[in-house]
Specification:
Helix content is 0%, strand content 48%. By secondary structure, the chain is mainly beta. It comes from Vibrio parahaemolyticus.
Length: 147
Amino acid sequence: VLAAGETATFTGSFVSLINGVENEATASAAIKDGGEPVLTKSDTDSCPPLTPVGALSITKDCTTYVEENASGAYGLRVNYEGKVCNDSKVKLNDVKITEMHDGMTVVKDVGTLNPESCMNYDGTYIPAPGSDVSGGPVVAHDVRTFK
């Protein structure tokens, strides 16, 4: 019950996925205790948008193997994997991973990363001869596993 001339103050908070929201409050009142509301008043306020800075991280591990191909020759195969993470409290859109090797560029479209989430990625390729090694064959002591 709110007597004539009295005011009541209310505070609160809410979480929104929208940056910059229109916030509305409505008060209603009845003349008779327990009666139907006969008075209604509303007010709105625009909550200003923030310009949050997102935070992105990426990891990558690769392993190189000697592998026999279909013709019986031996060559290298590179397997890689990792994850890209949204380390912020805001959703990140249009996230892409650009993988570069052998003079090639491969773009992996991740899409949307929700706050504090990660997406795994992986791939494999056979290096072109001479692309990762300066001329000539790979000698045995140069073949190893990288982590």
